[in-house]
UniProtKB/TrEMBL annotation:
Belongs to the flavin monoamine oxidase family. InterPro entries: Amino_oxidase (IPR002937), FAD/NAD-bd_sf (IPR036188), Flavin_amine_oxidase (IPR001613), Flavin_monoamine_oxidase (IPR050281), Homeodomain-like_sf (IPR009057), SWIRM (IPR007526), WH-like_DNA-bd_sf (IPR036388). Its cofactor is FAD. It comes from Cardamine amara subsp. amara. Residues 87-97 have a biased composition (Pro residues). This is Lysine-specific histone demethylase 1-like protein. Coiled coil: none annotated.
Amino acid sequence: MSTETKETRPESKPEDPENLSNLVPSGEEALQNLTAYDDNDVVSDASATETDLSLSGSQSEQNLEEDGQNSLDDQSPLTELQLQTQPSPPLPPPPPQLETRISESLGEEESFDLGTEQQSQNQNTTEPNPRARKRRRRKRFFTEINANPAFSRNRRNSIGKEVDSEALIAMSVGFPVNSLTEEEIEANVVSIIGGRDQANYIVVRNHIIALWRSNVSNWLTRDHALESIRVEHKNLVDTAYSFLLEHGYINFGLAPVIKEAKLRSFDGVEPPNVVVIGAGLAGLVAARQLLSMGFRVLVLEGRDRPGGRVKTRKMKGGDGVEAMADVGGSVLTGINGNPLGVLARQLGLPLHKVRDICPLYLPNGELVDIGVDSKIEASFNKLLDRVCKLRQSMIEENKSVDVPLGEALETFRLVYGVADDPQERMLLDWHLANLEYANATLLGNLSMVYWDQDDPYEMGGDHCFIPGGNEIFVHALAENLPIFYGHTVESIRYGNNGVLVYAGDKEFYCDMALCTVPLGVLKKGAIEFYPELPEKKKEAIERLGYGLLNKVAMLFPYNFWGEEIDTFGRLTENSSTRGEFFLFYSYSSVSGGPLLIALVAGDAAERFETMSPTDSVKRVLQILRGIYHPKGIVVPDPVQALCSRWGQDKYSYGSYSYVAVGSSGDDYDILAESVGDGRVFFAGEATNKQYPATMHGAFLSGMREAANILRVARRRASSSSSSPASNPNQSFINKEEEEEENSCLDQLFETPDLTFGCFSALFTPNSDEPNSNALLRVRMEMEKPELSVWLYGLVTRKQASELGEMEGDEMRNECLRDKLGFIAVERKSLSQEGESMISSLKAARLNRQIFD
Ligand SMILES: Cc1cc2nc3c(=O)[nH]c(=O)nc-3n(C[C@H](O)[C@H](O)[C@H](O)COP(=O)(O)OP(=O)(O)OC[C@H]3O[C@@H](n4cnc5c(N)ncnc54)[C@H](O)[C@@H]3O)c2cc1C
């Protein structure tokens, strides 16, 4: 991925004692008595070896001087380089540049600010030596768009300005300024590519996106979209609206009105069944979207929790200090157009901008001189520019070779004599470590040609934290979804008639399956496919890189590092350990307590997994004391600490994808391709060429595949012989199983949450909120008892309780009918929402049986 910073994660599995993140309890004990934790927050054994807390405060006393000139500005011939080259895929032209800077406010309105590339480096801080953490990017100004005739006359006056800002919003969401995306072309949004219709379509499409983004808590209707467009362009509005809706660019997310909406995609035919494998962001988003499209959906998740590589741990100390630590994905890397930013707005969550200031400390605790710092940062960026030029020349000469990025950078460094001085070398190493962090691997593994192929698409705007952690999103997305936890999928068998998914001793039959497991799991071959995946896909799985990043999260009794910074870094004299705790994230302002997270990148991330947690935490404290003791600041022991082990996590086997030498962005596309003529689909961060290795990339891949599944389902439904409706045996729940289903429901109602009169109610297992769902059941007695039926409907938990408090069923029925507009229906007519609630209840009960 690109160089924008991201966050680490830890994780541990109860089954595998090696695979544990670790907690450090309070005080002295903290380092002597490390307790292992797992995904269930189970605190087990405290058998760590004795540790010595007297860590040395000062380290190297090097006197570092600013060096003279480097000669990076020289136009030295590239042929001087002696690089070991490796074959790479043919070089395509460089990707389109979408580098206009857009800034989006975090409130309901969006504002845009063209060309304000430089971010302020010294704001809101008293730090004497602030530094910018992010690599600067060159920028292009947005090309002008002229007023378009698609708009009605009364809007023409202000049209130029509006079209510009609407185009900017669409761009921030990932749409090109004046062309169609591949998805749009595939969806046939216009009959002639490049014609006048296309130009009009683009304006209409941008307009609809901007309209919805102006109030993401609303359901944007087709009529509303049409209001400001001339009526003769109704077809364009229809096309653009349907495209955007079905592909999840509008009306998506967690606003109440959006959660309730149901598309009528399968009127008159049995909706197809989809099994989603994995309840990470990609799987959750896809499952939600598919349910809202009318599919029947089931999610199989190996862990006992949703979220996958998004995991927030509650940390707690003796004196009431506590904090929420994101041990997986943490930073929203660019808020403009980011779908997670939309969720935050819908849920009313504030965002905390990660401040750009990042002081760097020398091993002796001194702050790095700002002049040297700026100089080396500039040199580092120039080295990268040199690499860009080299690959540009390779593209022009059509040379299909690749070399490791690290090798190219080192060669240029030597050629231009950059960072010969020890302090400069340490600074350069810090930047290289930062690059290894962003890509979760050693620079020696990265493709020089394609490592930053996603740069042109990167989300603009601030990097942000979600106060309380990203699991807020996960829980909101997972609410009421039929997720079966503890179901590790071992094989997937697919054919013309459907898909069989095997998890333990259970098999699940479905029309289509969506596999969202991490690339690390695919690389391990942990899931067998029958027939085997196509060679092309297997090769892409092999080629694409999947790297490692780890974290140590430490909850301290108080904040000793100051409230005014969110990050600080430390330099090391040893290049080979440059990624070891090189960057610290402070979560004091967002996590609820004095929480510090140290990152471990590159080589160090691998070594870290073999170190004992006691030693790791001791080492971090040694570094922190090296920085703060010389300033007279006491660094206390943490009251709790944990270390991640993403590489040993059998549901991940690493942190996120990167473009390895010999691989390219095309491999992401190949990973995204479905197999078995539209039977098995793939989503997840490693299937998203534009936004790999990110939370929003995972989110968008889930949306993408939901749209693909809908397209294939429609195609199949229209060819009657293979329509799921015409072959009931293909249904996930067929007629024969209906009775079993009903008896299952009877079993659920054997232990209702509430019972009163002839009513009983079950609460959704995923929420205690008064407005969460309750499934109400009522017996309709008939004269002939054998004709009596159970009827069902959804109310809220609060309404169910209020009904329970009323006197007599007559009053209840009156309230249901007159006040709540409640209509009780037979089981088979229950809404999709009702069905998914039943599935959640069943899943929760099953999970209780497994885990209690
Ligand atoms: C340490 C770390 C720091 C990161 N920092 C950032 C950041 O700051 N910003 C950012 O945007 N992104 C960050 N990321 C990346 C981001 O977290 C991921 O890209 C994203 O969460 C991936 O989502 P996903 O749905 O593709 O995969 P996952 O979240 O991994 O979901 C896949 C799911 O499949 C399940 N599964 C696996 N195998 C099986 C099986 N056989 N059967 C059933 N279920 C199975 C897993 O348990 C998991 O729940 C970070 C990641 C890590 C690890």
